[in-house]
Specification:
The complex is a heterodimer. Chain A is α/β, with parallel strands linked by helices. Chain A has helices spanning 25-36, 54-70, 80-89, and strands at residues 9-20, 39-52, 73-77. Chain B is elongated. Chain B is built from 25 helices and 22 strands. The longest helix of chain B has 28 residues, at 322-349. Classes of the chains: A alpha/beta, B alpha+beta.
Chain lengths: 98, 697
């Protein structure tokens, strides 16, 4: 897969809504990927997310890692569900604002 | 020597302890319904009873406890709050568990009561009715390994299509969690960058350290549906039965190699880098930081477990049946008696070596005796706590509001003494609640706080333990006591009795001031029996009371019944033993400054009454006391006063097991038991308190 080109925008916030779970995971991946490549500072607001599973957490982890590789700041806010599933599964949750 | 242990009997003993904890938790919750710790305690007690009951096939007990436990789980999970009704049902359930425990096939009454409790619980918490017995089924199906805990390293790599096939790792992790204590480290190092991620594939993996007493099969069963498609490696890395004093676990490099995170060549390369092994491995790209962190966590966990195990090993306790302890104490007592004989024979033989051996033996026996006595001691909390429920239920029945305050609960007493104190204290508490403490309305009218207080307090007093039971109620009505005593012929019309003497009349046989007997007390069979029981223990009881302010029962109980140490004295042909705890001093009678013709001596500036034991016991045998040389005055303490006892001679200190007196001594006032001397003769135990009181009269 080719890497999308970076936009000139400095910072951006995206508001995810619905269930960040396996059935919708493709759409979410595309949405986040496009945002990461289009700015230097991305905030993902998860307040509209009403469910998250391991597939969803994996996408956020991959996004944080990709953003890091791109030199893009990546953070997730209102991310209690993300934090909870990562804590339960013993996995690091990159991008979480402490 | 081996003895077969009945698992059901062991279970009953365990449940008896759990029921005490459960009752305590419920009573505490009643005082503070928001105490989450107590909700947990109550839940845990029931959970343990349920699990063990199911394993022993006590189905009715298991099912019933499950229902009650479910109600407490609802409260614990914050879905409901503690209500007075839940406490009532909890206490009723506690009694029901006790009843179910007594029988394998409960009768109709027991079943009906169980049904009533369950129905009320369902009314209050509808979830109780639909609660499947999941936990109990698991407990009956999964055999415990009998306390041996194993720490398993579970390396879990789901197949990449785990999300697609719906095998959710989270559910399996949750199921593992139910087996024991778990430390979980998830790895994300194989998760690609988002641009390269197929989000429908799973790239996560886990290292799980599970410590459980369930066997390996129980652990493997969790993965039964995925074990041929996922990469699952289960390795035992530590076991509680290992007799290892080595606290160290494997080195970090060893762990990483063992787990397959690095190869031996990579380890060697990192070691050669001469820096911290973890850093070197990460820097050289052999392993991700996550995997080093997981290995370090494993190292830390096992070290901690081993430390805890070692500390538990050094402070561990074992349960010993009280009969065995009784036997030990009795044997030590016999030892003491036999030693007295040996010492007498050694003295008669005049052999210095035998005498020296006897002395060394005495020191050993004393240490053994002290240890045996300590083993037999229990804190009075065991006794006092049992009255919480009684006070609560009685107060409720009598429409009274009573707070029970316990003080000095760490004070220790001989277990046998504790057993024999139960009934007397029960009578005292019942009397206090029935007659002493007023209703809230009466208290308010009298300007008191509507809630009455009953205080039980224990503290050491020499070789005795003092127990006080006080209430802040109306106190003893001495006018009513006097009137009743006159009617019952206990006193004459012209008797002039002090307030404290009138109070003491409540201990007279059959005495009661209440016109109608209640089902709580008032049949007049209480306080005289209490007094007799306490005196049977070698103790004493006195009452203090102030009108309108309350009453206090002062009990003085010997620390132990098993072995006494005393001073042997001779009076006539008979030997007596005065307990060392009561002896103050021994002086020559001739040196004592008598006070005129009265039986009083000036002892250190204080006039103290004395009793000639020859006269007291009406002894006319033995050397004529008028001509007996060097008669001694034994100064003793009795309750809160002093008394002199005139004896013919003082011999030596003596330790022995106390024997009960035979029928021959029935009605002899002033002796409470007997000890067997080295030469086989009997010495009578002086009941100093009794002599003092009778002399007073």
């Amino acid at each position: 897969m080719s890497m999308p080109k970076r936009d000139t925008s400095e910072s951006k916030t995206i508001h995810l809504k619905g269930a960040l779970t396996f059935p919708n995971i493709m759409d979410f991946r595309d949405q986040i990927l496009q945002s990461v490549t289009s700015c230097r500072d991305l905030t993902v607001d998860l307040s509209g997310i009403d469910a998250i599973d391991l597939a969803g957490a994996q996408v956020l982890i991959a996004a944080a890692r990709f953003a890091d590789a791109q030199g893009t700041t990546f953070r997730c806010i209102h991310a209690d569900r993300y934090r909870r599933i990562c804590d339960f599964a013993g996995i690091r949750s990159p991008g979480l604002v402490p | 020597m081996s003895a077969s242990v009945d698992p059901l009997e062991t279970f009953r003993e365990e449940v008896a302890e759990l029921l005490v904890s459960l009752e305590h938790a419920l009573m505490q919750l009643e005082e503070d319904p928001a105490d989450l710790g107590m909700i947990d305690d109550a839940f845990r007690s029931m959970h343990t009873i349920k699990g063990s009951g199911n394993m022993l096939g006590l189905t009715a007990l298991g099912e019933f406890t499950h229902m009650v436990e479910t109600a407490f789980a609802i409260v614990r999970d914050g879905k409901a709050v503690v209500t007075p009704h839940l406490i009532e049902l909890g206490l009723a359930a506690r009694d029901q568990i006790e009843a179910l425990l007594g029988t394998h096939e409960p009768d109709a009454d027991i079943l009906a009561e169980g049904e009533r409790i369950v129905q009320e619980l369902i009314r209050e918490y509808p979830e109780v009715g639909g609660a499947p017995q999941r936990a109990s089924i698991r407990e009956t199906e999964v055999p415990d390994t009998g306390g041996t805990e194993t720490t398993w390293r579970i390396q879990l790599t789901p197949s990449s299509d785990a999300f697609v096939t719906g095998n959710n790792p989270i559910l399996l992790i949750r199921e593992l969690m139910e087996l024991g204590e778990m430390l979980i480290v998830g790895f994300t190092d194989k998760v690609p960058l988002l641009s390269e991620l197929d989000p429908e594939q799973c790239f996560l993996s886990w290292d799980i350290l599970l410590t459980t007493s369930k066997g390996e099969n129980a652990v493997r069963d969790v993965f039964i549906f995925v074990d041929d498609i996922w990469d699952i490696r289960i390795t035992a890395i530590d076991e509680s039965s290992l007799d290892s004093t080595d606290l160290d676990y494997k080195r970090l490099g060893e762990i990483l190699v063992e787990r397959g995170d690095i190869g031996a060549d990579e380890l060697e390369a990192a070691v050669n880098a001469r820096s911290y092994i973890g850093d070197a491995l990460v820097q050289q790209g052999f392993v991700s930081p996550e995997r080093v962190e997981a290995a370090l966590k494993e190292q830390d966990l096992i070290r901690k477990r081993r430390e805890t195990r070692q500390s538990l090993d050094t402070t561990s306790t074992i349960k010993v049946r009280t009969e065995k302890l009784d036997t030990l104490v009795n044997l030590v007592g016999e030892f003491v008696s036999e030693h007295a004989t040996l010492q007498r024979l050694a003295a008669a033989a005049g052999d210095p070596e035998i005498l020296s051996t006897a002395e060394r033996l005495e020191a050993l026996i004393r240490d053994t005796r002290d240890l045996a006595m300590q083993l037999h001691m229990v804190p009075v909390e065991v006794l006092f706590s049992g009255f919480r429920r009684l006070v609560r239920d009685l107060a409720k029945d009598l429409n009274k509001d009573v707070k029970l305050v316990l003080e000095g609960v760490d004070t220790e007493l001989d277990k046998n003494v504790v057993e024999r104190l139960k009934d007397p204290l029960l009578h005292i508490i019942r009397n206090s609640l029935d007659h002493g403490l007023e209703t809230p309305q009466e208290r308010q009218k009298a300007g008191k706080h509507p809630q009455g207080t009953l205080t039980m307090k224990a503290f050491y007093s020499g070789a005795h333990v003092a127990i006080q039971v006080s209430d802040d109620g109306r106190g003893i009505n001495t006018d009513a006591v006097r009137e009743k005593a006159l009617v019952q012929g206990l006193i004459a019309d012209d008797d002039r009795l002090s307030e404290s003497e009138l109070n003491e009349l409540i201990f007279a046989p059959g005495f009661s001031t209440t016109e109608t007997a209640t089902n709580v007390s008032g049949r007049g069979v209480g306080m005289d029996v209490v007094k007799r029981n306490i005196e049977g223990l070698g103790g004493s009881i006195r009452v203090e009371s102030a009108s309108g302010e309350g009453s206090t029962m002062n009990l003085r109980i010997p620390l132990t019944l098993a072995i006494v140490e005393g001073l042997l004295v001779d009076v006539g042909d008979q030997s007596y033993l005065a307990t060392m705890s009561s002896v103050i001093e021994c002086i020559e009678l001739d040196d004592a400054a008598r006070y005129g013709d009265q039986k009083l001596v000036n002892y250190r500036g204080q006039l103290v009454p004395f009793v000639d034991l020859r006269e007291y016991f009406q002894l006319d045998s033995g050397p004529d006391h008028e001509h007996a040389e060097h008669r001694q005055l034994l100064m003793v303490s009795s309750e809160d006063r002093m008394l002199g006892l005139v004896v013919d001679g003082v011999r030596d200190t003596f330790q022995s097991v106390v024997k009960t007196l035979g029928k021959m001594y029935e009605g002899v006032e002033g002796v409470s038991g007997a000890v067997v001397l080295g030469d086989g003769r009997l010495a009578l135990m002086l009941d100093v308190d009794r002599i003092s009181r009778l002399t007073d009269k």
